[in-house]
């Protein structure tokens, strides 16, 4: 029946090449495929791509390390050992740790709710999760200043409780959480939606509680995607400049994260020191890249 | 264990998936819920399992209210349509899952878990696959893992949702026979959902034919095939030849002529005369109740079929009639059709 509908298929399976099949076979014999461009075009395309990558990504990366080490290793080490530099590294690590954990929890909860349940306002929530991607970080920072600043909406309460958010560490954490908000959730939602709820239903029907279903079935099924999201979230949290710059107040040794410290050093013409700290962030990027490649490999394996 | 479903209704927004359905399933029985997609059979199965809750009605296991218990507490073995195996666990851990999530006094010691899982894996004949992951298994093997996993919790009821739907024809037939055999060895009350009539008729002790959220007929495979209660069941199960007619005061007419067929108990109005193709004999055109022109003939294996065009009121209907292999018949010939065994239903029913 289905063969009758596809006469071409019948012919091919009987080993009687049609005109098209014969032409195809000849082309293949000549080492050419219909999907391949001439060698010159291929080489030109590859060269353009490589030149572009080298100019805009490779070269700047090299420059960062060259500038950082220009005055020698001793100067490099002393730039990093500077108390202000150390303080900025500590602050960056602290902020990244808090916002990664916060977004890990939030991302998991949001993705679970969106992928496994139907509820009113679901599409609004999905849109809101994407908001930080479409809003300029500076605007986000300003919004926090307007909410929590000295003249802000909650200024009275904050003063009464003697809590300082803007120009202090909590503001930096808030701004960073806002900016890195989507990474984990965006990574998990499509995967969880694709996996559906059948495995969870199976677990519950076998007697598992909600919590044990989550930890034994749902979480292991998304662990690589979750790690991937955390990795991207962390890289962005450590590198964030705009939003943090607005809320930080640039107090040396107190509210300067690494990106802010780099800018200050640069503006003070301390290029070697500035690039030394920058090289740490560049290194982070490289490590992230390697980890990302490994994770992508694992993710692809999971899919099969 | 017996299962009693009483007056169950389930709506999804505007769509009524189940409309006041009642059904009794006996202990140790293998029942098939058979129907086309959208007939509500899977919804009924999920309500019995506790994966879905009815808007009205009751479900009782051995006389006790099952709706008061969540799916966790019902102790049902559910085999999902696409198996829903835990993809990050190997076969052994998949089967052990139901034993490992038990708490407190119910929890078996590790050695007992291992022994039970190994016994189950040999029962479903896949003990050699214990270390494999679901993605490394064939469809039939996954099916067996799903079954072993469901049996691991010693379920009171085994529920199977289209268990062979995703398998190719040969494996399906093999597994079907094997499942029937397994059911005889391990007589757990079982409910199977399928849209494949062959599967239902071959496997089940009783068949529940469903359509449009209602139960059309409950009976043994022979009953639903030989004595369909409604036109829907006749159409759905087995091949059906539908001939047009009209009932006037208990007598069947076609094109203004009495047909000489029995229409006892059918109300006046348009009717459908339903028969199995092998119950419709070919006859000389003048002597049979129906006659028409042969449009085409097909032969496959031992059977030969003819499309015959019959005048029906203002239009025409084409029916498929069985033709003996040795009968000389060509397209264009006019033949008579005489149904030997048939059932008459009101056309709007």
TrEMBL record, chain A:
Keyword Amino-acid biosynthesis set for record: no
Record domain ABC transmembrane type-1: where: 89-296
Record-linked Gene3D superfamilies: MetI-like
Listed GO MF terms: ABC-type sulfate transporter activity
GO cellular component annotations of the record: plasma membrane
PROSITE patterns per the UniProt record, alphabetical: ABC_TM1
Keywords: Membrane, Sulfate transport, Transmembrane, Transmembrane helix, Transport
Function, in words: Part of the ABC transporter complex CysAWTP (TC 3.A.1.6.1) involved in sulfate/thiosulfate import. Probably responsible for the translocation of the substrate across the membrane.
Protein's UniProt name: Sulfate ABC transporter permease subunit CysW
Organism of provenance: Xanthobacter tagetidis
Gene: cysW
From TrEMBL, chain B:
EC code: 3.6.3.25
Entry keyword set: ATP-binding, Cell membrane, Hydrolase, Membrane, Nucleotide-binding, Sulfate transport, Translocase, Transport
Superkingdom as given in the UniProt entry: Bacteria
Domain ABC transporter: 3-237
Cellular component terms per the entry's GO annotation: ATP-binding cassette (ABC) transporter complex
Region forming the signal peptide: none
Group of enzyme by EC: hydrolase
CDD domains for the chain: ABC_CysA_sulfate_importer (cd03296)
Classification via Pfam families: ABC_tran (PF00005), TOBE_3 (PF12857)
Gene Ontology molecular-function annotations: ABC-type sulfate transporter activity; ATP binding; ATP hydrolysis activity
Family affiliation: Belongs to the ABC transporter superfamily.
Record-linked NCBIfam families: 3a0106s01 (TIGR00968)
Protein's name in the database: Sulfate ABC transporter ATP-binding protein
Organism of origin: Xanthobacter tagetidis
Gene from which the chain derives: cysA
């Amino acid at each position: 029946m289905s063969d009758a509908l596809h006469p071409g298929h019948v012919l091919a399976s009987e080993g009687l090449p049609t005109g098209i099949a014969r032409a195809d076979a000849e082309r293949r014999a000549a080492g050419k495929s219909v999907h391949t461009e001439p060698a010159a075009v291929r080489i030109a395309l590859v060269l353009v791509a490589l030149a572009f990558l080298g100019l805009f990504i490779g070269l700047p990366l090299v420059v960062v390390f060259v500038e950082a080490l220009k005055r020698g290793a001793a100067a490099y080490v002393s730039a990093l050992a500077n108390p202000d530099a150390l303080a900025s590294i500590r602050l960056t690590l602290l902020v990244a740790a808090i916002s990664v954990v916060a977004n890990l929890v939030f991302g998991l909860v949001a993705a679970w709710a969106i992928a496994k349940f139907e509820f009113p306002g679901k599409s609004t929530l999905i849109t809101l999760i994407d908001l930080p991607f479409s809003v300029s970080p500076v605007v986000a920072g300003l919004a926090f200043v307007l909410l929590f600043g000295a003249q802000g909406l909650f200024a009275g309460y904050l003063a009464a409780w003697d809590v300082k958010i803007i120009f202090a560490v909590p503001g930096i954490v808030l701004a960073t959480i806002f900016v890195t908000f989507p990474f984990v959730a965006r990574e998990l939602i499509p995967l969880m939606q694709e996996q559906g709820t059948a495995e969870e239903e199976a677990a519950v029907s076998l007697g598992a509680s909600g919590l044990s279903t989550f930890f034994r079935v749902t979480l292991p099924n998304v662990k690589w995607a979750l790690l991937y999201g955390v990795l991207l979230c962390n890289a962005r949290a450590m590198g964030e400049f705009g939003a943090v710059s607005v809320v930080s107040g640039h107090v040396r040794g107190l509210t300067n994260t690494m990106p802010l410290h780099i800018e200050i050093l640069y503006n003070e013409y301390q290029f070697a020191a500035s690039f030394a700290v920058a090289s740490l962030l560049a290194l982070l990027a490289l490590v992230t890249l390697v980890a990302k490649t490994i994770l992508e490999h694992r993710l692809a394996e999971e899919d099969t | 264990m017996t299962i009693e479903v009483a007056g169950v209704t389930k709506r999804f927004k505007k769509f009524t998936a189940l409309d006041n359905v009642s059904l009794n399933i006996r202990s140790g029985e293998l029942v098939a819920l058979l129907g086309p997609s959208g007939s509500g059979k899977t919804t009924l199965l999920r309500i019995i399992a506790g994966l879905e809750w009815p808007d009205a009605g009751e479900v009782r296991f051995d006389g006790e209210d099952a709706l008061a218990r969540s799916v966790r507490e019902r102790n049902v073995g559910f085999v999902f349509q696409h198996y829903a195996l835990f993809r990050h666990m190997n076969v052994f851990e998949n089967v052990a899952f139901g034993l490992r999530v038990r708490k407190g006094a119910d929890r078996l010691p590790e050695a007992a878990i291992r022994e039970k899982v190994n016994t189950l894996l040999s029962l479903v004949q896949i003990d050699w696959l214990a270390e494999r992951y679901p993605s490394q298994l064939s469809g039939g093997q996954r099916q067996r893992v799903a079954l072993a996993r469901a049996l691991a919790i010693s379920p009171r009821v085994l529920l199977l949702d289209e268990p062979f739907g995703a398998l190719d024809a040969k494996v399906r037939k093999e597994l079907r026979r094997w499942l029937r055999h397994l059911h005889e060895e391990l007589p757990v009350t079982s409910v199977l959902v399928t849209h494949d009539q062959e599967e239902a008729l071959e496997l089940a002790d009783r068949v529940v034919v469903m359509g449009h959220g209602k139960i059309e007929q409950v009976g043994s495979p022979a009953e639903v095939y030989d004595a369909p209660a409604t036109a829907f069941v006749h159409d759905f199960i087995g091949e059906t030849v539908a001939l047009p007619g009209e009932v006037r005061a208990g007598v069947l007419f076609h094109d203004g002529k009495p047909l000489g067929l029995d229409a006892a108990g059918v109300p006046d109005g348009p009717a459908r005369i339903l028969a199995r193709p092998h119950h419709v004999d070919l006859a000389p055109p003048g002597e049979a109740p129906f006659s028409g022109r042969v449009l085409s003939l097909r032969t496959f294996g031992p059977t030969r079929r003819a499309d015959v065009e019959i005048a029906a009121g203002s239009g025409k209907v084409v029916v498929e009639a069985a033709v003996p292999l040795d009968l000389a018949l060509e397209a264009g010939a006019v033949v008579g059709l005489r149904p030997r065994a048939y059932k008459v239903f009101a056309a709007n029913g």
